[in-house]
Each structure stands twice: as C-alpha cells, then as structure tokens.
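Supplementary notes for students who missed Thursday's class. We covered one full example, reproduced here. Read the sequence, then the structure, then the short commentary at the end.
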Amino acid sequence: MADLKRWFKVWTAILSDDDFDPSRPGTLESIGRFSLLGAYMALHGERGVVDIMPDTLFRLMQVKNLDELRSQMTLKNIVFEEGKNRYGKITVTWGKWSKFQEDSSVAERMKLLRNKRREEEIRKEEIREDGKSFVESSPELQLSRALFELIKQRNPTHKHPNFQKWAKDVDLMIRVDHRSHADIEKIIQMSQRHSFWQNVILSPKNLRNQFDKLTIESRKSEFKDRPRELVL
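Structure (token representation):
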C-alpha cells in the first residue's frame, strides 16, 4: 500500500467549494492554512484525527489563539476541540478524511483480491469429488427423499431423480452455505405448502438458489399466523 504519510490530496472540487470562493477576501490564506493543516494531519494524524500542542498549531496556522483560528478557518469538515486530553493539546478532527485522503484505489484492489480468493475457496468446496456417494442413512439423502415425497404427493408421475446428485446439492447447503439440517427440513416443508414456491422448488438445487427468499417468506408466514394480543 502507498505510504499515506507522504502526501495530502487537494481535490479539484476546491474550485467549486463555497468555503474557498475566490471572490471572498482571505481565500488564499484559507487555502494555505487548509493545505498546511492537511499535510500535518497526513504526517502526524490517524484517520483524520490529531492531537497537537496549541503553540505548534497557532504557529503553523499563523494565528494568535483558537478563536482567531476558528474565525479564519470556517470549514464545515474541520473541528478544533479543547479539553479532550489531559496534556492540554487541541484535538483536530477532519471529517471524511478516509473517503478523500486514503488511497482508495489500493483499498479497492485489496477488496477485489479478498473477494476473488473467497470465490475460489467456494468453487473448490463445490467441486464434486469423483466417486463420492452418500449412504441411505445420511441426512443429505434423507432430506432429498423428503423433498421428493412431498413433490410426489402433488404429482405421482414426477420423474424419479438421481438421489446422489440431489444429495450433493444438499451437502453444499450444509457445508458451504452453513445451513442446518433442521432449517433445510423446515424450508422444504414450507416450500411445498406454498402455492407459488411448490412449483418452483422441484430439486435441492432450486432450493439452494432460493433459500434466502424462502427463509424470508417463512418468517412472514410465521408472523402472520402468530396470535395477536387483544388490547382492551
């Protein structure tokens, strides 16, 4: 990551910022103070906050006291506070520092890299191992058969599935998506009672793809069916 203490950004938006209106007297002095304080913040501060001795701050800003500084730097995003530490220092807080001063391009690249690694881990988890099979008593097969039995109640001639393939999709729900056996069974039951979802959820793969939506629908149904208290 770039050395954030080696630079301070002055954005081109300063040209249209009301705080630096060129027609206002003293604008150049304000820009100078703004830049010097920004450079000091980048060098000595931490994410837009720095504690500084009053005489150092006043000398840097070329003012006699804090009141004069506040009158000269009426910027909405910079706050000067006394008494926040026991050493008599003035605390300077620069709003939105991270947004405008930190190297966002590097941060975005790191975020994309983390997401890519996570996606690769998920893909590896989803690779089906050759020859892997599930025994009849496994929860993956039992949940697969439970779904099929509910589908068959509505359509006795429904095509007989490959239960090993179905079980692998249930296995992904458990291992990769971290769904519990109880939650999967609950959503299976709910989906096959629902007038819309019973025609959509016809395999564990469909179930996995729609699991979050089905969970929300299930909670809505539970809330609707909950007894209401009678207020007298």
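Commentary. Residues 4-101 form one domain. The chain has two domains: 4-101, 139-225. If anything here is unclear, bring it to office hours.
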